[in-house]
Write a structure and sequence with these properties.
two-stranded antiparallel sheet, 12% strand, Aspartate Aminotransferase, domain 2, EC 2.6.1.2, pyridoxal phosphate, L-alanine:2-oxoglutarate aminotransferase activity, alpha/beta, pyridoxal phosphate binding, PyrdxlP-dep_Trfase_major
């Protein structure tokens, strides 16, 4: 069951919309998971902390497992925007919210590294039911592993060069250069759409997407 973001509020996720969606879902199923993509794909928004707090409270109220797709967490362009991970926010909220089941997803195929042909990623899962964890480990053990190259690239993403190491300055310059270029393109795309008659487009706060509206 889908839910819709509020374009007029910068593609925010309104709790009233989540309540509508889950009410509709309960007519045909028993909802167990809520999926949130932040920064947004394909809308390019970055959720603020207050909005994330509201979503976490909603998930707790409805006993939902949170799947947080955060693969564009480094791609934040708007000066007024900041990435907040669901794990950090629910941990800072304390009981009972810090006991919610949460899976956070990251990838080397997206973000500033953008190696789309090298498929690799990981999920960090917290507060998982022990019985579910046992079954998940059985499932993983029976499946094939990702390609060795993808695993190697993923290792470099989660273990980047640190200050003082030989390659750090080059890594830092390349990363900042890529993100600066993406920020410039994001602004150019949004400004271009807004200059066309019959189009409007919100500021691209993050990720790699603009989602214009065609006015007719």
């Amino acid at each position: 069951i889908g839910y819709y973001l509020d374009e007029e509020k910068g593609w925010s996720l309104e709790i009233s919309e989540l309540k509508r969606a889950i009410k509709e879902a309960k007519e045909v199923s028993e909802p167990r998971v809520i999926v949130v993509i932040n920064p947004g794909n394909p809308t390019g928004q970055v959720l603020n902390r207050d909005n994330i707090v509201e979503i976490i409270k909603f998930a707790h109220e409805e006993d939902l497992f949170i799947f947080a797709d955060e693969v564009y967490q480094d791609n934040v362009y708007a000066k007024t925007s900041k990435f907040h991970s669901f794990k950090r926010v629910l941990t800072e909220m304390g009981p009972p919210y810090n006991k919610i089941q949460l899976a956070s997803f990251m990838s080397c195929s997206k973000g500033y590294m953008g190696e789309c042909g090298l498929r690799g990623g990981y999920s960090e899962v917290i507060n998982l039911d022990p019985k579910v964890k046992t079954m998940l480990l059985k499932s993983i053990s029976a499946s094939l592993c990702p390609t060795s190259l993808g695993q190697a690239v993923m290792d470099t993403v989660v273990n980047p060069p640190q200050p003082g190491e030989p390659s750090y300055e080059r890594y830092k310059a390349e990363k900042e250069g890529v993100l600066k270029s993406l920020a410039e393109r994001a602004k150019m795309v949004a400004d271009s759409f807004n200059s066309f008659e019959g189009f409007s487009c919100n500021t691209v706060q993050g990720a790699m997407y603009a989602f214009p509206q065609v006015i007719y």
